[in-house]
Amino acid sequence: MNKAIILAGGQGKRMKAPIPKPMFRVLGEPMLEWVLGACEEAGLEKICVITGYEAEQIKAYLGDRCETAFQAERLGTGHAVMQAIPFLEADAEGNTLVLCGDAPFIDCATIRDSLERHIQEENAVTVITANVAQPFGYGRILRTDSGIAGIVEEKDATEEQRRITEINSGCYWFRTADLIELLGLIKNDNAQKEYYLTDTIAIALKTGRRAGAFCSANPDVVLGANDRKGLLALNDAARMAVLNRHMENGVGFVCTDGIIIERGVKIGAGTEILPNTILRGTTEIGENCVIGPNCVIENTAIGDNVELNTVQSYDSRIDAGVKMGPFVHIRPDSHICSGAKIGDFVEIKNTEIGEDTMVAHLAYLGDSDIGRKVNIGCGCVTVNFDGIRKSRCEIGDHAFVGCNNNLIAPVRLGKYSYTAAGATITADVPDYALAIDRGTLHIKEGYTLRKFAKSPKKDDSK
User: Fold this and answer.
1) Could you list the active site residues?
2) Using one digit for the tens of pLDDT, what is the confidence trace for 159-174?
3) pTM
4) Do 216 and 273 sit in the same domain of this protein?
């Protein structure tokens, strides 16, 4: 069995926030999620996450997804892996990948290809490495004709060794049985009194085992973050990698300022994403759309040829040919059918808007079912909450709802029905009917003359 141990016990003091470092987010997902996802995609059958600082946060996030082991004291990477010895001993056959929960860019291809090399060369340990242009601060890989001689840290390297550009990623494949034995041989006779996982390489070579190195084609596998600046760099790298992937697939960007697209988002060819647009979660966008500027779209399915300008949409569905904006808020469980037009300052919640329906401006439509080719007048509100329960409104096909209407749910407007401006509708309106609610108009003549006569005189010339 091939499995993984993810080291996720770090505090990240320089982040200055009370959460474990692997839980800081890159493109909206914890760094730990990136690492877990790569392991799962690579088909690793069992995963154990080593927790430490604020362990309950990580355990709550993971749920039953994988095993955990707790490192009560942070005494080095080797000591962290020691906490997983029962996990290793439960099945000592096969191989174990050890990797860092705060180095998010490990990828499935690197995991699979390095395992293949590890098995092919019959290594006790295989270090995953990368070549980088600026290796300062990283451990350098010392190679021999038959494998790897060791890893030398920057502070201990000679001038010649510092010129080596192949560096340690912090990820290692071990034969599981060898890892168990090597962990028992690590010593903490160093200045920090810590147990270092890198010492297993020298021990393996000294005890006649073979150690190797696999150089990943992805130089970003080495990237991590120790502070907020480093976290920003990770986000920038991830953001541009996602944008480049979409451009390769035919998505257009006139400018990438303020555009953030999370990894799970899908976008069709010919669609253009305008500045200051954020696309999150499981959002899927069709072809030949224009999204933005200033949109936030989360977990929303969008059809072809949709135009959204300054729209926020959450957990909803927008069909083909819809035009919206500016300043539209689509709240969860809404469905905007094809051809609908939603204008400025409109909020829609848990509502279906029928095909070719017009909601021009200044309306709130909540908990409603609205038919085809309906016209919703300016200032219309579906009054869906009576202080105790939510109720629904139904508006039939081709209905015309006048300006400044209040529809007091539950109420139904029939097909081709009309409501007059200023109406408060408290009863169902039949098909083809007109509902008028005017009340009595009272006019008091001379009112303002009397009002001004009682007020101090003002100089209107100013």
Assistant:
1) 361
2) 999 999 999 999 999 9
3) 0.89
4) no
